[in-house]
Structures are given as C-alpha cells and as structure tokens.
Amino acid sequence: MSEALPRTRRRGRLLTLTALAAGLGAAAWVGRGLPGSFGRNPDGRDDRVRNSPQYGGGTFHNAPSELARRPAPGRSVPDTLRRALFERTGRTPVRPVPLVRQAPPATAAEGVAVTWFGHASALVEVEGSRVLLDPIWSERCSPLDHLGPRRLHPVPLPLGELPQVDAVLISHDHYDHLDMATVKRLVRSQSAPFAVPLGIGGHLRRWGVPEHRIIELDWDETCTLGDLHLTLTAAHHFSGRSFKRNTTLWGSWVVAGPNRRVFYTGDSGYFEGYARIGEQHGPFDAALVQIGAYDEGWADIHLTPEDAVLAHRELGGGLLLPVHWCTFNLGLHPWAEPVERLLAEAKAHDVPVVVPRPGQRVELEDLPELDSWWVGLA
C-alpha cells in the first residue's frame, strides 16, 4: 500500500476548490441545503471499504506507480487560484456551441454506439444494452445552485427523454461526475441500478436511491446484468465532496457485451495501469478518454491530450472519443486547446478519433467525418 503524499493532497484540495469556484466557506451563507449535496463519507465503517486493498489509514490510495507523472514544482496554491479566477481569456467559447438535439433511438445498437452529452456524460450502447456514464444535467457542477462552474452550453437532451438504460455508471464522487440533483431525477425516471466505486453507495443512500439499485465495486470486480459485464478498473486520481478526501474510491470502467467492449477512463493521470487494463480486458472497440482540465501542477491526476493518446494506445482502445472538455471551465488552458492537441498527437500515431458535438450519437459502423465544429468558437 502506497502512502498518500501530502503534495498530492494539497493539489487535490486545490482542484476541488477551483471546480467549486467559491470555496466551501460559502456553507454558512447557503444554510442547511449544502450538507445534503456533500453526501455521506463512509469513514471506514463499511466492512468492504475497510477491507479493500486500496484502503489504509482511513483513506483510499492510488496504486504504487513508477510511471505516474510528477507535478511541476514551484506553483503555490494562491498563485494557481489567482490564475483560475482572473486569467480567464480564451477559456470559454465566444459563440454558441453547436448541439445535436435528438433522442437516441428506442432500440439500442446491436454493435457499439456512443451519444456524448458534454463533459464526461455519455450514453454507451453495446450489443443491445445501454449504460449512462457520469450523468450531470445540472446547470452547475457544484454543491450550490447559484455558485460554481456553470455550463458553457445547454444540456442537449432533457433527462426525461433518455431511453431506459441497463445501468448508470459513476467513476468517482467529484461534483462534475456525481451530481445529486441528476441522481434524484434518475431514481424517478429510470429503474436501472447505479454501479459505483466503493464508498459512493453512502452518497446514493442519503439521496434516496433504494438499496437494491446500488452496486458497489472495488477495482477489478465485475457485476453482470444479463449480457452486460461491467468491471471497475483502476485510475490514478482522488475523491472528495467536502473537507475530507479519499474516503470513497475512484476508478475507470470496462463495459463489455458478449463480443464488443468499450472503455471509459474516468478522471486519471497517466500510469502503468493502462497497459495492464489493455492486457486483461482489451482490445476495445472504443474508448472514452479524459482530455481536459489538465495543468502542469495536476499531471498526476489528469491526463494531458498527449498522455490521453499514449494511454489509449496502451489500452488497445480502438476509436478514441474525447470527453471531459467543452462543457465546464475547470482548467487553466484555452477552451479548445484539449481537442486541438489531441488531434495533433493522434495523427502522429495513426489513432482514429471522432469528436462529436454535444448530443451527437456516433455509431462505430457509420462514423461521421471530422468537421472541426469547435474552430472559431473561442
């Protein structure tokens, strides 16, 4: 078991503060509504949490890694916060982001199809089954309704117009991946279970998700729902919704049917786990890979576009579909930089890439041409 590094914890606190854009000091102002969105920390009370190989000393830990990127030294927390709050030129689109406002078909694809709704939210279809990844339909990714990063484009499709899914998958409990309001609405509009990393079940229970709809997994554990096999795999990241960090696990997902399979990175820095996941579960027909909200100071917890291509190649990822960009301003880089850097690196290594508009459904057997819809928007 590796020890949690104090520097990583400081960066984790910084990244969460940047994402909330108001700090948790606003709790006194917003009153009693805030603790509910925090969820519930398991604090080692759950036997499965306490006995996990990833858990020790009261928190979860990343796996030991010799290849994980080391954050660049020399940037203080106040300096990074200053850049995040005041150096905003080019970080948002100046014209409306083009959307595709069309509901997925009533019948799931017999092959593989992906509908990207923006950021990391996507509907994945594999051989007649559907899974919903990290859904966030709220206006802000924040515990507050009126503070925090706001959407840069509308939601392409009302949540109630989604077809019935077979599972809702959560990668980790940060606000841009696990949204309380969306979860509560899905409890009413869907009947599917929520498959989540260890500890996140506590959040769901507090928000009214019935026990029979909660599946908690450790790394390398699989749940089977009919012909659908869902495996939680490793990631190099962190967790936390309030003042405590890493009391819930984080991860990536393998979505497999009888013959086809898709991978989703969740949030992660580069590490040797991608090659191992590729050997155990690949090759994949497609991979949804995180490309945005990177910085030299966050190199160990978020992929750069170049690292995204490297991870994808080691996974045997097939078609690369970039996620975790476009929808929320969470990084310090220009808005369209992630996809431009990704395409340059992918071209250098002959990696096939598709960049859908938010709301666009992509079928692997009938891929659209790359049309650079983002050019000129920022």
Tell me about this structure.
By secondary structure, this protein is an alpha/beta fold. The chain contains ten helices and 15 strands. Helix 6 (180-189) links the parallel strand 6 (167-169) and strand 7 (194-197).
Spell out the blueprint of helices and strands.
Layout: H1 6-20, H2 27-30, H3 34-38, H4 47-50, E1 55-56, E2 59-60, H5 77-86, E3 112-118, E4 121-126, E5 129-133, E6 167-169, H6 180-189, E7 194-197, H7 200-206, E8 214-217, E9 221-225, E10 228-233, E11 252-256, E12 261-264, H8 273-281, E13 286-290, H9 305-315, E14 319-323, H10 337-348, E15 361-363
Parallel strand pairs: 5-6, 6-7, 7-8, 12-13, 13-14
Antiparallel strand pairs: 1-2, 3-4, 3-15, 4-5, 9-10, 10-11, 11-12
Task: Give a brief outline of the structure.
By secondary structure, the chain is α/β, with parallel strands linked by helices. 23% of the residues lie in helices and 17% in strands.
C-alpha Rg (nearest Å): 19 Å
For the largest beta-sheet, the strand count, sense and barrel status come to: 7 strands, mixed
Instruction: Output the number of helix runs.
Output: 10
**SS class:** alpha/beta
Number of strands: 15
The proportion of strand residues reads 15-25%
**What string gives the helices and strands in order?**
HHHHEEHEEEEHEHEEEEEHEHEHE
CATH topology: Metallo-beta-lactamase, Chain A
Helix content: 10-25%
- Just name the CATH architecture: 4-Layer Sandwich
Distance N to C terminus: 44 Å
- When the domains are counted, the total is 1
In the CATH scheme, the class would be: Alpha Beta
Look at the structure and give the mean pLDDT.
Answer: 90
